[in-house]
Amino acid sequence: MTPTVLLLCALAACLATAYALRGGLTSTNKLTMLGMDAQGIGISLLSVAAAVWFFGATFGLALIAVIVIHEFGHVAAFRVAGHHDARFRLVPLLGGYAISNRPVKTQEDQVFISLMGPAIGIAPMLLAYGLTPFSAQYFPAAISPLLTFASICGALNFFNLLPIWPLDGGKLTASITSVFHDRAPFCIFVTSTALIGLVALLTQSIFIGFIVIMGIQHIVKTGGSDGRAPHARMSKNHAFLCLGAWLFSAAALFIGGLATILRFV
Question: Hey, is 139 helix, strand or coil?
């Protein structure tokens, strides 16, 4: 793919994302335009400092930018679903979380909110890759930050789409697969948690181990289904469409984040 074609694809992805999130990209309250409430600013600054301290300026700032975009995707999707109170906060070295004071009413809304956190990263990832060839000609110093941001954007958001609780992929698993069989989420969660647990042992990763513990707690508490899941189930046709969107997003993000994924494997 030529640089011009890649850049055009990136711009098309940006327009498609803006269209999908129309009505949710801005807030009626200017102080929460991004969805970050005032109480979370202090802890967010601490998150930035911790990321830069542990990972260096380029990687750390790129990581924070990816997380902010990710959480904003959730907030914007919440707004589209009518949750204008939605906001997010960053957590030092653990990422962030988006919240709303009202429960989600339908499985379609739950899927949309869960998916748009990772999926919103596709457009900026492609844009960063698309701008890299042009920066090589006009601003070489931007090459490393652009490539770092793009690969982190792909890898982190792909990881979030894995069918593991409490990742976004786990919430998608609970919402989509339960349409086909009530016990499907339980079987998937047990298998995926066991596999990610093996990865945690092999890599001795505290972060992955923390996710495994949360996954086990969820399985024990709910039997693998999301106890907060909305009662209004979607149709199987809608479930297939949601599954397709999930797999497409995961594939695009995996390809974009392959360099970072291979770095940590």
Answer: coil
